[in-house]
Amino acid sequence: MYNNKKVVTVTGASRGIGRGISLMLAENNCVIIAVGTRDKNDVQDYIKELTDRSPGSIYITADISKDLDCDRLIREIEEKFGNIDFHVNNAGISPSVRMDILETTRESFDRLLDVNLKGTFFLTQKIANLMIKNESETLRGIINISSISAYAPSVNRPEYCISKAGISMITALFADKLAEYGINVYEMRPGIIQTDMTAGVIDKYNKMIKEGLLPISRIGQPEDVAKPVLAIISGLLPYSTGEVINADGGFHIKRL
Q1: Which SS3 state, helix, strand or coil, does residue 208 take?
Q2: Which residue out of 59, 160, 186, 205 is catalytically annotated?
Q3: 40, 86, 90, 99: which has the highest count of C-beta atoms within 10 A?
Q4: pLDDT tens readout for residues 235-253
């Protein structure tokens, strides 16, 4: 806790789902350690909005696929806050070019897994050890932002789907290991959310939604993911760990 507020790290914080999560938490009794790859000078509008909502929040430039950046992030957290209450693994990238599974390159595969899977795993490892070292009586947790792509194959971006499927196992593994330390781990699975990442295919998705793809017939917004994250951080799921929470308009429902 920091001045009676929960301290929460959010990776990939300055845009899309991460922006929605960080700003909503900032409005609701949280101090945010926002993490992103963009330089501070390039996200001044975001930083101002974040700190206006929650004074004391900070932005740290770091690439989660780089071990030295992750080590520096942990040091800065310890120096400025000592410990955190929750960590949100949101950082992720999509393929630079969508390619069929029969054409996908090793370069693209490595790039996606370095960030989405390996970066998430090893940063979570460092965050978990930080939390374990600093014992707390308050509820603490880690929230992994996955995707419906964890189980719904898209053969024109297989490396993305594989990386998100791996997030599900990361969630299960850390949930099992960290329960004894009072640290719960959750997986959030967004569906089709209107962000920079989906901008290039938004017309296609809107057409599919109009034709009945989703029971809740609208495209999702970052706030639709941020609200269940807020529920977890507010302490409303204290007896759940390893839980998968769908924020997908009902996409996961098997229908005839």
Answers
A1: helix
A2: 160
A3: 90
A4: 999 999 999 999 999 999 9
